[in-house]
Design brief:
It comes from Trema orientale (Charcoal tree). Belongs to the PC-esterase family. TBL subfamily. It is found in: Membrane. InterPro entries: TBL, TBL_C, TBL_N. It is a single chain. Helix 1 packs across helix 2 and helix 3 packs parallel to helix 4. This protein has one domain: Rossmann fold, CATH 3.40.50. The strands form four sheets. Strands 2-17-16-13-7-10-9-8 form an eight-stranded mixed β-sheet, with helices on one face. By secondary structure, the chain is α/β, with parallel strands linked by helices. The longest helix is centred in the middle third of the chain and has 19 residues. Helices cover about 20% and strands about 25% of the residues. The radius of gyration is 20 Å and the shape is globular.
Length: about 350
């Protein structure tokens, strides 16, 4: 087994802000990682053993509804499956699906965000299905809401597609992204755990851009600085959390900014145009490009919250994994290169291991 290795340091933030940065067992900690080969140099694929049985995640066959299954879609290499995230200074526990379900028996969990939220949701549902493979589970869709239920535990794991968190409205002039308005928040209420995410859609251009105008107050504009738009929208979401969430009833997480790999110069490989053909992670404890601008905005806005929100700080973890994207294997007979999402099994499983570790620590 090979590992990402890490170290931790305290996040300094304003004393009144109850923000919890989560990347390992404890709140208020950031993780920096690096790679280390196992002692004998042999490859051991990602296999998980626990009290309730054994599963080989490298096969990817035990979850009939898994998406982004790169192996099934023809990816020829398997090395990307052999890495687990291991923080420096503490141990990240193995994910125990049955224990997770016992802790959330009769509860509702909802992911709200873009396709990276979907990536994490699919990972979690498959990890839980692996724990109880003979469950009479149900998987349903109603509009933008996807729901995975395990009747034995009365648990529902939902994904609500909402890439901006703030409102996008069809008006006469076109699709208007209203940065200071959230009218759909009632869909997020009555849930025991919320995991929010937004960032990637804010950077889209050309045919990938899904809106026509930005609006703040009465001011409508065709274009504005994307990071500033993201900051305003995230502040609107933070205000909604402060006004509507009761931390004694609902635990709130924010899924941090996931890295893309579209330029090999970022990892000191100028010949690489993107993640295509990448089969090994970035080695070392630092990503050559020091800071992700979206990450800084997320930490700044979340630090202003009055209510407790846990940040799953996955940015560095994902920056090191240039090998983990679907590339040409997001689907069968695919011709486009996907360097934004992640193969499953793969990197998002580590995000859910971190989520589970937080629940254990609480």
């Amino acid at each position: 087994m090979d590992w990402w290795f890490g170290s931790m340091f305290q996040l300094q933030h304003h004393s009144f802000a109850p923000l919890s940065i989560v990347t390992t067992l404890l709140a208020l900690q950031l993780v920096e990682g690096s790679l280390q080969e196992n002692d004998d140099g042999k490859v051991e694929y990602y296999k998980q053993t626990h009290n309730y049985g054994y599963c080989d995640f490298s096969e990817g066959k035990s979850c009939p509804f898994i998406g982004f299954n790169c192996l099934s879609n023809g990816r020829p290499d398997k090395d990307y499956l052999k890495y687990r995230w291991k923080p420096n200074g503490c141990h990240l526990p193995r994910f125990d699906g049955r224990d997770f379900l016992e802790r959330y028996r009769g509860k509702k969990i909802m992911f709200v965000g873009d396709s990276l939220s979907n990536n994490m949701w699919q990972s979690l549902t498959c990890m839980l299905h692996t724990a109880i493979p003979y469950s009479n589970y149900t998987l349903s869709q109603s509009g933008l809401l996807f729901k995975f239920s395990l009747p034995e535990y009365g648990v529902s794991i939902m994904f609500l597609k909402n890439g901006f968190l703030v409102d996008m409205v069809n008006e006469k002039i076109g699709k208007v992204l209203k940065l200071d308005s959230i009218s759909t928040g009632n869909q997020w209420k009555g849930v025991d755990m919320l995991i929010f995410n937004t960032f990637h859609w804010w950077t889209h251009t050309g045919i990938s851009k899904t809106w026509d105008y930005f609006q703040v107050g009465d001011k409508v504009t065709k274009e504005m600085d994307r990071l500033e738009a993201f900051r305003i929208a995230l502040t609107t979401w933070a205000n909604w959390v402060d006004s509507n969430i009761d931390p004694s009833k609902t635990k709130v997480f924010f899924q941090g900014v996931s890295a893309v790999h579209l330029n090999g110069k970022e990892w000191n490989d100028p010949k690489a145009r993107n993640c295509k053909g990448q089969t090994q992670p970035v080695k070392g404890s630092r990503y050559p490009v020091p800071n992700h601008p979206g990450e800084a905005i997320v930490k700044s806005v979340l630090s202003s919250l009055r209510k407790k929100v846990y940040l799953l700080d996955i940015t560095l973890l994902t920056q090191l994994r240039k090998d983990g994207h679907p590339s040409l294997y997001a689907s069968k007979n695919n011709t486009s290169v996907d360097c934004s999402h992640w193969c499953l099994p793969g990197v998002p499983d580590a995000w859910n291991e971190i989520l589970y570790a937080v629940l254990l620590s609480n």
